Amino acid sequence: MTNITDRQLLKELRARINERKKYEQEVQMLTRELQDVTKKLRESEALKSHFISNISNEIVNPFTSILGLSKSILSVEKNDWKKVVSMVALIHSEAFNLDFQLRNIFVAAKIEAGEVVPNISKVNIRGIIQSIIDSFNLVARKMGIEIDFEWNIEYGFGKNFYFKTDSEKIKLILSNLLNNALKYSYKDSKVIIKVWADEEKLSMSVKDYGTGISDKNQKIIFERFKRLDTGINSINRGHGLGLSITKALLDVLGGEIEIESQKGEGSTFTINLPEAKNVVEGFSGEGNDIFFDDGDEIF
Fold first, then answer.
1. Which of 87, 92, 94, 266 has the most CB within a 10 Å radius?
2. For the domain with range 121-274, which CATH number is right: 2.60.40.3090, 3.40.50.1400, 3.30.565.10, 2.60.40.10?
């Protein structure tokens, strides 16, 4: 049996104590990490539950309205066409909103599954933007909001400007930004869409004069399911996906988004998008197929 001196025994005890402290620190660190993961999972489940509750209403309510209005039209007297026109306009508004929300949901699912990739073509930027504005004009007029379009690109094929990018993703990006601007604008105000470009990138901004976004909320608005409860218009629907989808699609296209906002003074969202390097043949359409196109596949 080996004799151990007191000094050696003390050294061995110190080494074992230090080793035990190291293990305890690792356990504490792992415990904290586990607690953080558990907290995030609970928050995620709460957000998803809130999302499911919201989205159920977003789908059911427009369907209920459409069915009710359609039934009312059938009972309208033949000479009361003004009432029919008014009801048809409401049906269009509800169907437009439902189609828009469903597109966001479908794209969010594809993003979550990692199935979104660029589909590059030569895109008529002015045509696409104008079609989006036309799509939202009825909603904007209903809220008393004017949409101004400032085109600051002088070159290209006449009034048109072709840019290599993904037309469907650009449509949804700008649609979400415009929808967001209308949602948080005051009645009888305006929303301004500006477009400009240089040799390397395309830039677009959407400016509103609405409620604005606090510095605190600016840090979370691009997170999934985050929805600010400060909308002031009847269009204040949604499920907290719009801006997160916008950010995710810009990431796919190699673009970026910036926000300038002050509480009570409105917001400006600016996107910068580099032109795709892919060699492509042919051109995209004028962009007037946004919404209600049976042959239009989503990504």
1. 266
2. 3.30.565.10
